[in-house]
Design brief:
about 325 residues, alpha/beta, D-Maltodextrin-Binding Protein, domain 2, 2 domains, ten-stranded mixed beta sheet, globular
Length: about 325
């Protein structure tokens, strides 16, 4: 009898211990690896409110900013200094994967973190001020053909970044050497918008979700969005695609989160389960739509496979542009 009671007590203790391992993190934090106001900031703030609304977190996670290298500084900091911190999520995008494909995150690669969730997608876009002389994408291309250095283009990151790649693909399609274009490297969509509206650059290579607040205010216009067809949202339906203007370029910008490489399986499972519940909810879909993101839901091993395939595909693209050997 005593032996049976001990077994029951031991089993109960194990269940309690497992529950503690999979408990809500005490100080959850979302790192946006850029300056405030861009896509990483948007991604963190989307789940900051959504996780609380769905009662998956009892209080909002902190959003902190760690700009540098369009994600490289945050990636290195988490992998090297906070590898087992179960409370720290870091936002990533397709641009992060492109940089990983080129070795821009230093000694770490796509195998050095735990890919957690993809929560939505946006699309690349070319933005100008509302009073810009460029009315169409072809207007811009003709100006670049005449003198590639005459147009100052702001992009998130240096040569080889996602924003650089968008304009490089346009240049290549138009017979222009992408390396002849005049770029200003900025840290994310927030800085691109500030520089564009301040007159420091003439064109912003960005994405549509970053741009919509400025489009709606009347301060900016989009010459093209890199989607396969016009987007259905009422405020986006009049924005032409690059494809319909003769430039067959499609560039989705997937957004999501990763965790440090030594986060326990139990804590990883807690986050995965939470995101699975979140992504299946109608309330999250509403919040995602409000932030001009489109459906793209993936978690756990499925996401890990997706990320590694994307990095491999981006390596092929980077080789085509002479960015890696």
């Amino acid at each position: 009898m005593n032996l049976s009671l001990r077994k029951v007590a031991l089993a109960a203790s194990c269940i309690l211990f497992a529950g503690q391992l999979m408990a809500e993190p005490k100080r959850p934090e979302c790192i946006a690896p850029a300056s405030p106001g861009g896509g990483f900031d948007l991604t963190c703030k989307l789940v900051q409110s959504a996780l609380v609304n769905q009662k998956l977190l009892s209080k909002p996670m902190r959003v902190t900013y760690m700009p540098g290298g369009v994600g490289a500084v945050a990636y290195n900091a988490v992998v090297a200094q906070r590898p087992a911190d179960a409370g720290t999520l870091v936002a990533w995008s397709s641009g992060s994967l492109l940089n990983l494909a080129q070795g821009k995150f230093g000694r770490f690669d796509e195998t050095n973190v735990r890919w957690l969730a993809a929560v939505g997608t946006s699309y690349g876009a070319i933005a100008v001020k509302s009073d810009s002389p460029y009315k169409t994408l072809d207007d811009l291309v003709q100006a670049l053909k005449k003198d590639p250095s005459s147009v100052v283009i702001g992009s998130g990151g240096t040569v080889g970044s996602q924003d650089w790649m968008q304009t490089a693909l346009i240049a290549k399609a138009a017979g222009i050497n992408p390396r002849d274009l005049r770029y200003v490297a900025l840290e994310g969509g927030g800085e691109i918008a500030t520089a564009l509206l301040g007159g420091h650059i003439q064109v912003g290579s960005t994405d549509i979700s970053d741009s919509m607040p400025h489009i709606q205010s009347g301060d900016m216009r989009l010459l093209a969005v890199f989607a396969d067809k016009r987007l259905d949202e009422p405020e986006m339906k009049d924005i032409p695609t690059a494809r319909e203007q003769g430039y067959d370029i499609v560039w989705p910008v997937v957004r999501g989160f990763y965790l440090g490489p030594k986060v326990s399986d139990e804590d990883y499972a807690w986050w995965k389960d939470s995101f699975d519940k979140l992504l299946a909810s109608d309330e999250f879909a509403t919040l995602r739509d409000q932030r001009e993101l489109f459906p793209f839901a993936m978690t756990g091993p499925e996401l890990d496979t997706y990320v590694k395939k994307q990095v491999a595909d981006y390596k092929v693209l980077a080789k085509e542009f002479g960015l890696i050997q």
